[in-house]
UniProtKB/TrEMBL annotation:
Its EC number is 1.18.1.2. The lineage of its organism: Bacteria, Bacillati, Bacillota, Bacilli, Bacillales. Homodimer. GO terms for molecular function: thioredoxin-disulfide reductase (NADPH) activity. It catalyses: 2 reduced [2Fe-2S]-[ferredoxin] + NADP(+) + H(+) = 2 oxidized [2Fe-2S]-[ferredoxin] + NADPH. FAD binds at residues 37, 49, 89, 287, 328. The keyword NADP applies. Binds 1 FAD per subunit. InterPro entries: FAD/NAD-bd_sf, FAD/NAD-binding_dom, Fd--NADP_Rdtase_type_2, Ferredoxin-NADP_redctase_2. Keywords: FAD, Flavoprotein, NADP, Oxidoreductase. Its cofactor is FAD. Belongs to the ferredoxin--NADP reductase type 2 family. It comes from the Bacteria. This is Ferredoxin--NADP reductase.
């Protein structure tokens, strides 16, 4: 027999900064909270640039993105929300009593009074290298993200791509790799002009318009050489490599959420200034939303999250306070402050 479902006050879909801060703020409002993330970890799109320094979040002095994710996660866990990983939410079903059942890709059901959609641009997938059999090298020396620079020290690194990420990684790896080669199918690069210039003026070997055509491996485990081909002349060249980084951009989509009846454009849902969507009990926050003054940045996700949580609270209890009591005077933090060794008057 199926386990009876447990009813939550709020279910947050998405574990990026908007979802993580919603989980924290929802705890401040005493709501029974669940957060569901399709990936196996929190961070959202911040996981695409863990090695980058973040300068533009208020009150945060230059901090590695990976460390900022850790801090956001620690904050999100403050009130011990239920966290569910590796489930993509697909189905939405309104119950006769007004509550909602969400169904995930695994078939699991989640019962909730309200929903906060913090899904960014949906489910992200790295655009893969379109070479048959390339996926078998993903466990060795074919990379789609760079988590750490150190493993590339003294290596011959080939980067395929011409956007921001390709240019940034070329510049970051150039001082420590033995050789960095960038292969791009167009003459023009999409990265910031000064970064493109820096790359071209450095020792980076820039090959345009070229594409990676064949991966060569004698043991079938590690790529040792790569054939690159000139897009116009068809001329080929064989290069020795120790590692390949592929930055062909991202593909993302909302999946079956498109059919929920949300007022959804190509990439954003329309919301009111209090972050209500057009579906009662469903609120939204972060990059997924659009409204007049929306800031599609990490900092912008925090205000959205607080507003969406407050709207969810008022949806459940129209008599509730309009906002949470500030943390400096909120009794919910008394014990937690004590644990931090803070002596309060
Ligand atoms: C390369 C790069 C560099 C950036 N640099 C900066 C910077 O320096 N400063 C700054 O302020 N901003 C920066 N940004 C923007 C910033 O990352 C975004 O504004 C922020 O991540 C948006 O947060 P979010 O929580 O709204 O969405 P996301 O971070 O996109 O998170 C959404 C989450 O929802 C999950 N999800 C989606 N659909 C479902 C579903 N159906 N079920 C379950 N889970 C689902 C996704 O897996 C994802 O984890 C950068 C972005 C990129 C790509």
């Amino acid at each position: 027999m199926d386990q009876p479902l447990e009813l939550y006050d709020v279910t947050i879909i998405g574990g990026g900064p908007a979802g993580m801060y919603s989980a924290f703020y929802s705890g401040m409002r005493d709501m029974k909270t669940k957060l569901i993330e399709a990936r196996d970890q929190l961070g959202g799109r911040m996981l695409f640039y863990p090695e980058k320094m973040i300068w533009d979040v208020g009150g945060v002095t230059p901090t590695l993105c990976a460390d900022l994710i850790k801090q956001l996660e620690q904050q999100a866990r403050t009130f011990e929300p239920t966290l569910v990983f590796e489930q993509q939410i697909e189905g939405f079903e309104r119950q006769p009593d007004g509550t909602i059942i969400l169904t995930s890709s695994t078939g699991e059901k989640h019962w909730t009074r309200t929903v906060i959609m913090a899904i960014g641009y949906g489910i992200y997938k790295m655009a893969k290298l379109e070479i048959e059999g390339a996926d078998r090298f993903e466990v060795t020396n074919l990379h789609y993200t760079v988590q750490e620079l150190e493993p590339f020290r003294g290596k011959k690194v080939l980067i395929s791509g011409g956007g921001d990420s390709a240019v940034d990684w070329a510049n970051e790896l150039e001082p420590l790799a033995e050789q960095v080669t960038v292969v791009h199918r167009r003459e023009r690069f999409g990265g910031l002009e000064r970064n493109v210039l820096r790359m071209k003026e450095s020792s980076v070997d820039v090959r345009t318009p070229y594409a990676v055509e064949t991966l060569h491996s004698t043991n079938g485990e590690v790529i040792e050489q790569v054939t690159i081909t000139h897009i116009e002349t068809g001329e080929s060249e064989l290069l020795d490599v120790d590692a390949i980084i592929v930055n062909h951009g991202m593909k993302s989509d909302f999946g079956p959420i498109r059919d929920w009846g949300l007022d959804l454009g190509e990439w954003h849902v329309s919301v009111s200034e209090k972050l209500h969507t057009n579906i009662p009990g469903v609120f939204a926050a972060g990059d997924f939303v659009n409204y007049g003054s929306k800031l599609h940045l990490i900092a912008g996700t925090f205000t959205d999250a607080a507003l969406a949580v407050n709207s969810a609270k008022l949806y459940m209890d129209p008599e509730a306070d309009k906002v949470a009591y500030v943390s400096s005077h909120n009794s919910r933090f008394k014990e937690k402050n004590k644990a931090l060794g803070v002596v309060e008057e």
